[in-house]
Design brief:
Blueprint lengths: L1 H4 L6 H14 L5 H13 L7 H19 L14 E4 L3 H4 L2 H14 L3 E2 L16 H18 L3 E4 L3 H15 L5 E4 H7 L9 E7 L3 H4 L6 H10 E5 L23 H7 L1 H8 L6 E3 L3 H13 L6 E3 L1 H8 L7
Parallel strand pairs: 1-2, 1-3, 3-4, 5-6, 5-7, 7-8
Helix pairs in contact: 6-15, 7-8, 9-11, 11-15
């Protein structure tokens, strides 16, 4: 946001990244971020989830979808020679599971030949917050996974800084990219005409994640999607690239920073309160999804749910059984 207003065009984010890189190389890294970076190097995701747990989770979600829809909708892991590689946030396996369910439903309707790679189960790239060498290594996992699968299309899941790193740094970090790179919201927005969506009787608002609206060119796509899925989408003021941060970005999503995060979220809370009653705050970023429920509680904003765009899409889809 500073870069948008700076009269000299100084990119404070790039300066901060350089400073963090120096600090990381002399061992000055918050424990929370250091642990995440260690897990990323070991397992390919922020949460240290190993392949057996990933497979088990996907099988469980398949059963959930079957119970809901009556359809055998698969969430394939390490499927060879798949045309599409989907790179989720690791939170989609444990916390934001309805986001992954929504993605699986969309891929099913579109008839896509897709898979998740157990070697690249994290869209997020915490190298952005501390160590550019780690950023490159984690990004190299993405390239290696796509080559192993043979995917011509890589689709990034709902993660703000994950999309920023993938979009802005992939080619510069690890040489030419042998696949097409897209975000899940781009894919859905381009295929709305063929998705059997019904409008849910909800009044919702959209939170623009910083790394989408100011660094990722994802501004109108989530709005187009939500307008096709709900009765009423109301806008915060300001919005789009001038929207306020939720207070949990920039690597601050750690318990010891909670008081600071709540102070930083004051403007966001005022934005939400000014809307009047809304059922959902839709936030297509894993960090925002973790931060906003605490903001709602701290500022006593009422009974508001937080969801990803793909969760809403999954609930609005009419599948073959008509359920």
């Amino acid at each position: 946001r500073c870069a948008y207003y700076c009269p000299l065009g100084i990119d404070t984010a790039e300066i901060t990244m350089a400073a963090r890189y120096i600090l990381a190389n002399i061992g000055l890294v918050p424990e929370f971020i250091a642990n995440i970076m260690l897990q990323m190097d070991k397992t390919g995701n922020n949460m240290g989830i190993l392949k057996p747990a990933i497979v088990d989770c996907c099988e469980f979600l398949e059963e959930e979808i079957k119970e809901e829809t009556g359809l055998d909708i698969k969430i394939p892991v390490d499927k060879p020679r798949a045309e599409v590689l989907y790179v989720p946030s690791s939170t989609e396996f444990l916390v934001n599971v309805d986001t992954l369910i929504g993605v699986a439903k969309v891929f099913h309707v579109l008839g896509l030949d897709w898979t998740i790679s157990s070697a690249a189960t994290e869209a997020a790239n915490y190298g952005l917050f501390a160590n550019l060498d780690l950023l490159k290594r984690h990004n190299a996992r993405l390239l290696a996974a796509a080559r192993t699968v043979g995917a011509g299309l890589v689709v990034q899941g709902e993660c703000g800084h994950g999309w920023r790193v993938a979009k802005m740094y992939t080619e510069g970090a690890n040489a030419p990219v042998p696949f097409k790179l897209r975000h899940i919201l781009e894919l859905v927005a381009d295929n709305l005409a063929v998705l059997p969506l019904r409008k849910l009787p909800w009044r919702v608002t959209l939170h623009d994640p910083c790394n989408y609206a100011r660094a990722g060119d994802l501004i109108e796509q989530p709005r187009t999607i939500l307008k096709a899925c709900v009765n009423e989408l109301v806008e915060m003021t300001p919005n789009r690239e001038f929207n306020y941060c939720c207070g949990g970005g920039s690597g601050l999503l750690m318990d010891e920073m909670l008081a600071t995060r709540m102070k930083l979220a004051k403007m966001k809370a005022e934005q939400i309160r000014a809307l009047g009653p809304v059922g959902y705050i839709v936030a297509p970023c894993a960090s925002c999804k973790a931060q906003l429920p605490k903001v709602i509680e701290n500022y006593q904003l009422g009974n508001i749910q937080v969801a990803g765009v793909m969760e809403i899409v999954g609930k609005a889809l009419r599948l073959e059984t008509g359920r």
